[in-house]
Amino acid sequence: xxxxxxxxxxxxxxxxxxxxxxxxxxxxxxxxxxxxxxxxxxxxxxxxxxxxxxxxxxxxxxxxxxxxxxxxxxxxxxxxxxxxxxxxxxxxxxxxxxxxxxxxxxxxxxxxxxxxxx
Length: 118
Description:
Layout: H1 6-18, H2 23-29, H3 37-49, E1 53-58, E2 61-66, H4 70-85, H5 90-101, H6 105-115
Antiparallel strand pairs: 1-2
Helix pairs in contact: 1-3, 2-3
């Protein structure tokens, strides 16, 4: 799966939350200062070229929707992070974050419950 830039991820977060939207609707949800319409439109086209977004025509405009769901992207990103920085070891990655974030045993137990939900 291709990697997204920070700006692309931000647009995807809004699109995942909205499920489908035109460019103006995405901009409406964004914090101030709001980016220019052309900026968001360009990022959407890049996301479309990367295979993350598709659209349907509606009137004279387009309604965009995610082709990649958030969970799939998160899993791929976590895997890439583990591979690139922790020699593929999720255990090493979790240990690192436990040290950096000073996680408690209770925090770790909650994480394990989430991991074992399936």
